[in-house]
Structures are given as C-alpha cells and as structure tokens.
Amino acid sequence: MRKVQKNNQNNQNPKAQQRAKLTFRMNVLFFSIFILFSTLIFRLGYLQIVKGEEYVLEVKSTEEVRVNTSVPRGRIYDRYGRILVDNQPENAITYTKMPTTKQKEMLDIAIELAKLIEQPTNRVTQRDKLDFWILLKNEEALAKVTDEERAEYRAQNEELEEKQINAEMDRRIRERITDEELAQLTDFDLEVLAIYREMMSGYNLSPQIIKSEGVTDDEFARVSERLADLPGVNTTTDWKRVRLTPFSLLGRTTVPSKGIPRNKLDFYLARDYSRNDRVGESYFEAQYEEILQGEKSVVKNITNKKGQVVEMQTTYPGEPGKDLVTTLDMELQAEAERLVEKYLLELKALGSSSLLDRAFFVMMDPNTGELLSIVGKKIEKDEETGESYIIDYSYGAFTTAYEVGSSIKAATVLMGYSEDVINIGSTLIDEPIKLLSTEPKSSIFNRGSRISMTDLKALERSSNSYMFKIALGIGGTGYSYNMGLRLREDTLQKMRNGYSQFGLGVPTGIDLPGEFAGYQGIMDTPGKILDLAIGQFDTYTPLQLAQYISTVANGGYRVQPRMLKEIRKPSTDGEVLGPLVQEVEPKILNRISNTDAEIEHVKKGLRQVYIGSQGSAARSFRDAPYTAAGKTGTAEVVYYGPQTDKYRTNTTTLTHVGFAPYDNPQIAYAVVIPWVTTDFSRSLIQNNELAREIVDYYFELQQKYEQNGMKDNLTTQKVLPPFSEDRLDEDEAHTTATEE
What we know:
Layout: H1 2-50, H2 52-59, E1 62-67, E2 76-77, E3 83-95, H3 103-114, H4 126-136, H5 138-142, H6 147-156, H7 162-176, H8 179-182, H9 187-200, E4 208-211, H10 217-225, E5 233-243, H11 265-269, H12 283-287, H13 289-293, E6 297-303, E7 309-316, E8 323-326, H14 330-348, E9 358-364, E10 371-381, E11 388-392, H15 396-399, H16 409-418, E12 427-430, E13 451-454, H17 455-461, H18 464-474, H19 491-500, H20 528-533, H21 542-553, E14 557-559, E15 564-568, E16 580-583, E17 588-591, H22 596-611, H23 618-621, E18 629-638, E19 650-660, E20 667-677, H24 686-708, E21 728-729, H25 730-733
Parallel strand pairs: 2-8
Antiparallel strand pairs: 1-6, 2-3, 3-4, 3-5, 5-21, 6-7, 8-15, 9-10, 9-20, 10-11, 12-13, 14-17, 15-16, 18-19, 19-20
Helix pairs in contact: 1-2, 3-9, 14-24, 16-18, 16-22, 17-22
C-alpha cells in the first residue's frame, strides 16, 4: 500500500510544476506590459511636456525669404538735378515655384503659358534642347543605354558611387541623341522650353521673371485672365533702365534675360540677389550698385507639415534704390564733347594724321575733386562700309595713358626745390645737352646757343634744358659737354616718387572701376632720365594730368577725383529731389613736399605761360576775360597704338593743363590729343585753343546759372528734364559698342 501511495505523489508533481511555471510566465508578461506602458506614458509625457512646443513649431514651420518685387533702381542726376538715368515701368510675367511643385506640373504650366505669350527662344542652348528631348521622350532616351551596358559599366567601376554612374549614363544618352531626333522639337516645343528653362532657374518661393521685355498688353491681359488656372504664375510691373544721355561713364545694367554676370554670380547670390536681377555692369552703375539697387521686400511663407504654403506675410515692404547726384554739369559736358569732336576732326583733316584717332578733356574742381566734365572721343571705322564714325570714349580718360610732354614741367621744378637741386629764382643755362655717344637734346626755341634762364622763364618758354639739369642734379651730377653719365642708383625711383605725389604714374582713386596707372618706361640707357623730366618716358592718363594740375592749383593737396556728389532718398513727387542722405566729402590723398612759397612761385610761372611775352599759350589765353594759368605740352613719341602695322612710327602728342581763376581756382583742366601728326614741321596749337574755348564756356555758364538762380548746393533741389534728347534703353545698351 505504501508503494502505491508513493507513485501517486510522483504523478501529481509535474502538474504542480507546470502550474508554477505558468504563473511565473504570466507575472513576467504582466510586468513587461507594465514596463512598456510605463515607457510609452513617459515618452508621451516627454513629447508633450518637454518637446511639445518644439514640435508645434515644426508643424507650423515658417520660412523667411527675400522676394524679388522689382523695386525701381535709384535715379541718377547731374549736379543741377537734370535726370541722366531713369526707370520706365513695363509689364512682366513671373513664376514662383513651390517646394511641393513637381516637374510635370511645371511642364504643364509652361505649355499653357506658351499658348498665351510669344517667348523668344534665342537663349535656348543645345544642352537645353537635349535635356528637354529627354524629358519629353523619356522612354526613348532610356532605351539608348541598355541594362547590360549599365551593368557592365558598374562592374568595371565598382569604386564609383551610384550618382556618378548615372551621370555617365546621362552623358551617353545625350551623346546618342541625333540631330534628326532634336529636329523633332517644333517651334512651339522650343517656346515651351524657353519658358520652362526660366521656371527651372528660380528658387523655391522666389518669383522668377519669365518675360519682361516686350510683353504686349494683349499677352498681359490673357495671362491675367488665366491666373487661377496657372498656379505660381503672376502678372506684375517690372522696371526698364533708361539712360537719357550717351555718356558712357554712367554705365549700364544687365537685363533680366542676362541677369547676374557669371563671374559675379556667387558674390551677388550671397547678398540675396536673384539670378535674373538687374545689376550694375559697368562704371557708375557698377560702382554704386548697392546704393542704386534698393531693398527687396521680405516675405514670411507659412507652411504646413507637407511643405505647402498656407499663408504669406510681408514683414518688410521693400524700398526703392536711393537716387545719386553726380558731380557732372551735363550742359558743360555736352559743349565740351562738341568741341573735342570738332578739334579732333579738324586735326584729322590736316594730313599726316593717319595715327590720330582720339582726344580727351577733363575738368574738375581742384578743391573738392568733383569731376565737372570728362570727355573722350574716338574715331572708329565700320569694317563693312569703311566709313568713319565717332564714339564716346570718356572711359579712356582713366583707362589709357600717354607720354604727355612738357605739361608736367611744373612738377619737375617743384621736385627740384624739394630735392634741393634748385631754389626759388634759381638761374640755369639753357643749352643743348650733349652726353657721351648720344645726340644733343635741347629746347625747341634754342638749338645751339646758351641762354641764362630763371625757373619762371623756364616754365614760360618751356625750357627742356632747365628740366634736364634738374634731373641731373637729382642724380647727383652737374652738366659738362660730352660727359659720360653716371647717376645715383635711386635717381629713377626718386623722380617717380616725386611725380607720384602729384598723382602722375599712380592711380588717382577715381570712384569708377578699371583705372589704369600708366606704363613705366624701361631705363635701358641713363640718358632716358632726361626724357622722364620732360614727360617723354613714362605714360600718364588724362585724369592724372587733371589731378596733377589740381594739386598745384589748390596749394599742394592731391585730392581724389570723384563722380558722386550726393546720395538722396527717392523723390516722392517727381518734382523735387528726395531728402539728402549724404553729401560726399572731399578726400585728400596726400600733400606734396613743397612749401607754400615754392608752390606759389611755380604758379606765377604758369601764369606767365598764359600772359608772358614768350608764353607758350599766350596766343590763346592772353586776352581771356578771366585770370588763368597753365602749361602746354608737345611730346615727340614713338607710336604703339591700335594700328600694329604702324608700330615704331615717330609722331607727336599735344597736351595742355591749366586752372582758373588764378587767385582762387574753381576749375582745373587737362587736354590730351595723342598721335596728332607725323609731320614735325607743323606748329599746332589746337590743344590750347580747345582748352580756351571750354574754359570760356564754363564761365559763361556760371553767369547764366547765377542769373537763373541755379545752384548745386541746395538742400531741396528741383528735378530738371534731361539736357539731352538722346535715349538709350537697357536692351539697346547691350547692342552698342560704345561701352566695350
């Protein structure tokens, strides 16, 4: 019986053990569920309490972008308020791409737009056509590269990433598209492509101009009526830049079809420009781009979590560009241009003038650096017809340089003072300078005798010999007949440093891009130091000449020349210039190392040039109704101009510098007429006559302005109509060669 009882107990143990295990497992399961629910509740609490605000902001995400609202660029005026560059409103069609916009949707919109407007296709490239053909005929395009070819290339180039492999396949596809297949694109397809490429070039949420040049009223109306069916498309007002004078230094802007120049793309994009924004491309428009451009509006785009724009809020309405008042007097400029052209053609008609093709005149205020007139005229020839015509070449006044001759002798005399070679009133002998193994160098008026001459007389008669001896003195030697020339090693640099104090051979600092400092000659023989002293070695720009004579006129201060006079807010009524924002102050670059007495003494010599019995410009200026002083120049030079087949031809350049009135200078001026003649027997004074006529006109204008109550320094100034009847639209500016 005991044995049977033991067996029953053994049979019951497995069941008990099974129940115990089941209970344990249930407890583990319930505990795990408890942990999971606790973690979930904790996570939900963390998301709601700790991160809730952050995620709410993400759901209601905002993006702040600058939107091109085509604010007008600032106007440009002359010093008396005459409009020089204006804006003209014109119709425009734009497209704004949304973050969720699909490529197919954009193509459909482009197709619909092509039915409503005529889009020029001249900007469509070969690459554009290839890409568009692939887009339209995707299956045919993909079939040009087989799966086997793709797999083989991938196997041979295992190190390449997938995008690199795809790029190679895309290249092969484009390479295999035939001309016949591209010819399948119809004229309508090309119009669609022209629209589509503009749509694709824009950024998300930033309006892209599809067409603004030549949008007709009918096109504008048709698109406006269909805006509800064309998501992202809008009709608006754009602004065309209009230049009301042919004066090229005002510069030009790009047109929307060109947009930002490629070489400056990163620079402008980093400053919130759009790719098709107008930007200043040359000279004044480029120099003051940031002031003229204005401020775009800032729009906050409120998007939902799908990236869809649900609301747009303008946080900054934008602001038109500021207006700029230039230092120019356009009435004076127009007359100076007429006279420069007149004398250029007169000299061209004299004969022996095959090299002559240009002439320059610059006038500035010697006290402030304000450029009143800057003229350049150049004769061009039409390659097809062979006919000659004259272009504006005003930029050549600071981008080209020439040997200017005796005009710089005032600087040479002042350098002689500062280097203790001569003193005020020093007398030297004017005589031919004969150095060992060289031909004699002499003054034009004295080919063989010895004439005792003071510094003032040397300026009046334009003595070369006097200047030669100053150069020799700077080099540490005197003169004796047929001497071998040994100069101090620093002589050349010392003289160039001396001239640079006046602005000769160094940048003037003009507030325009592209200035040229001039060319420094190579001193292969010591005797050329004599040529440097009379302006027949290094080259200087016409603007450098004007800055140099301004430095003498104002008592020794080299002032930076500039074209900007004032910055103003846009006019509110179109009748009076806007409020003054800033008046540009004169900038003194340096003072020459001469005493006031030395400068005044040299000015007396320059006065004698105009009124002395032997003054080189007395014939032109002795009877002037105002007091003035100056210096003439005739440089015998070797030609290295645009006619390469005439290189090394000996020719003559005429120059002239001056200032007036003598006691209280208001103006300083320079004339440069390069390569006038190859006939050295001619005695030409057109440089002096040109200077006289323009200076006469300047003083006549001052009387006229005073009688009419015209002033250039008023806080409030009336807007005056343009002086010229010329008109040059921005698109026309890109088809003319006058600014190249």
